[in-house]
Amino acid sequence: MTSSAMTNGHVIQTRALTKRYGDVRAVDGVNLEVRTGDVYGFLGANGSGKTTTVRMLLGLVLPTSGEAEVLGRPMPTARSSVLPRIGSLVEGPAAYPHLSGSANLALLDATGSDRRPRLERRNRIAISLEQVGLDPADRRPVRAYSQGMRQRLGLAAALMRRPTLLILDEPSNGLDPQGIHEIRALLLQLNSQGTTIFLSSHLLAEIEQMCTHVGVLRSGKLILQEHLDTLLQPTGLATVRTPDVAHCTSLLGGYVVSVDGDRLLVRAEDPARLNAYLVAEGVRVDEIGPHRRTLEQVVLEAEARA
Amino acid sequence: MIVVELIKMLRRPRTWLIIGMLIALPTLVAVLLAITDLGPRPGTGPPFLSAVLSDGTLFPLAALGVVLPLLLPIAVAVLGGDAIAGESQIGTLRYLLVRPVGRTHLLLAKLVTVVAFVLLAVLVVAAVSYLEGRLLLGQAPATGTVSVSGSTLTQQELAWRTVLALGYVIISMLGVAAIALFFSTLTRSSIGAALGTVGILIASTVLLGLDAANVLHPFLPTRHWLAFVDLFRDPILWRDVTRGLIVQLGYLIVFTLAAWANFSTKDIDD
């Protein structure tokens, strides 16, 4: 890795990255920051510019203006040295339909100039296929694969060369819940072994369950980029669930922010103290705890601001 | 990369289907000639076809004369048109480029593969039609084959002139291959790219039949295709063969450069 990547630890860094198609700014002044070891969730609705950004990071689409640095080197200029260390899944998997899964991987592997001995290549193809839950001995052509199997094959292709950075666009597309669970476990395991993961998705739940960092793209603009723990930290409010709503509100007065059925939102830095107070005053408490926003609320608020 | 592309071409069922079609037509012609013994009158019909009745060793050339005007260029247009557009259509293009494979490198590998296909197709057609000529049609006169000019060619002379002719046929397809490759970088539809190429060939053929287009004739890609017949004159008439060569090289260079200019900075967003 070059010195700049060593010093600031950035695996991906973009400055005012912009892509215009005619008058439309598909990606508009995006400053991404992904550090070594992150699981970065890149959120955005369909058509928000996620895929175009991913394509610019991989040198498939040329930016109109701005810069992108990946693994410490400028893209797309340094693609021949950067791309061999990246595994990617861009807008769905693709394979030659008349060949088997392992034949497809072998062909793809053989196209690069960074070729390894034959045995090593065959081994890593078999290992990658097993990792994603496909049978390396399966001789059926990809034409006969289900959508989930194709998705797994695409992931195997991304993992094949043990990349230091995985750029995955909608990796759980077409997978059943069991498959999603398996792939998530696999990605987290790879991350714990040092692989940085950049995951783009329109599924909030997927990002919330896996990621350490979140970036939100809306109409080509990055409206939010933050550590997930920071976003979801306690809000200084407490949620109280009680059958004695009236008693409780009269006791707390102006501290009550909102009431929703038997659920109250109360301004309180210390829920434990609040609990002791309520119980002492004879309020029965079913449930009490610090209030945290969901990622969905965070994203909706950010979008409302933007 | 070139090796991988060649393997891909050889493993595609379609490659062999097309070669099968290229063999089928001359085979049908050979069978019909053998049964009816009715050749076209001298000077009409595809070249060498009237001569093969008495001399089967000329049948490979007659076979090439049969497939060259239409079948072979269409096959080249289909393969060349599929080169980039086909990968784009099924989505494998982006994975090749992030592997990474250099765009110029990929383009050259595709061009070499199409030319290799032409070589393979021409050799298979020549080999099969040679056998058919020996088995189904007349034997060569003991004195040797009669050239187009009426003199007699020895077996050796015939052999190397045949090799020259095969080489010329392959070169004749370079222009089509480059045009198809260029169209292939313009669109995601391999059929569209192939049809565009065939359209150009049809236009060229139409213009060749039009006296008003005389000034254009020397530059048309199909103008010198059948000049390989001149290689069997005595002495060899080099004029059209040389011109054909230059025209094909011109198309090859211009359209390969155009394909490169378009593809090397193209946004891959399929």
In short:
Chain A has 306 residues and is of the alpha/beta class.
Secondary-structure topology with pairs:
The complex is a heterodimer of chains A (306) and B (270).
Chain A lengths: L2 H6 L1 E12 L2 E7 L2 E3 L3 E5 L6 H8 L7 E6 L2 E3 L3 H4 L3 E4 L11 H11 L6 H14 L15 H13 L5 E5 L7 H16 L3 E6 L2 H7 L2 E6 L2 E7 H4 L5 E5 L3 H8 L3 E5 L2 E5 L3 H10 L6 E4 L4 H11 L1
Helix pairs in contact in A: 4-5, 5-6
Chain B lengths: L1 H10 L1 H24 L22 H9 L3 H20 L1 H6 L5 H34 L8 E2 L5 E2 L1 H18 L1 H13 L3 H19 L29 H27 L6
Antiparallel strand pairs in B: 1-2
Helix pairs in contact in B: 1-6, 2-3, 2-4, 2-6, 3-6, 4-6, 4-8, 4-9, 6-7, 6-8, 6-10, 8-9, 8-10
- As a percent range, the share of helical residues of chain B equals 55-70%
Beta fraction of the residues of chain B?
under 5%
CATH architecture of the largest domain in chain A: 3-Layer(aba) Sandwich
Helical percentage of chain A: 25-40%
Description:
The model of chain A is unreliable at 1-7 (pLDDT under 50). In chain A, strand 8, helix 7 and strand 9 form a beta-alpha-beta unit. Chain A has 306 residues and is α/β, with parallel strands linked by helices. Chain A is elongated, with a radius of gyration of 24 Å. Chain A has a 6-stranded mixed β-sheet, with helices on both faces. In chain A, strands 1, 2, 3, 5 and 6 form a 5-stranded antiparallel β-sheet that branches. The two termini of chain A are 36 Å apart. Chain A has 12 helices and 15 strands. By secondary structure, chain B is an all-alpha fold. Chain B has one domain (2-264). Chain B contains 10 helices and 2 strands. Chain B has a two-stranded antiparallel ribbon. The mean pLDDT of chain B is 89. The A-B interface holds A 51-52, 55, 58-62, 79-80, 83-84, 86, 88, 90-99, 107-108, 110-113, 157 and B 1, 3-4, 7-8, 11-13, 90-92, 94-102, 265, 267-269.
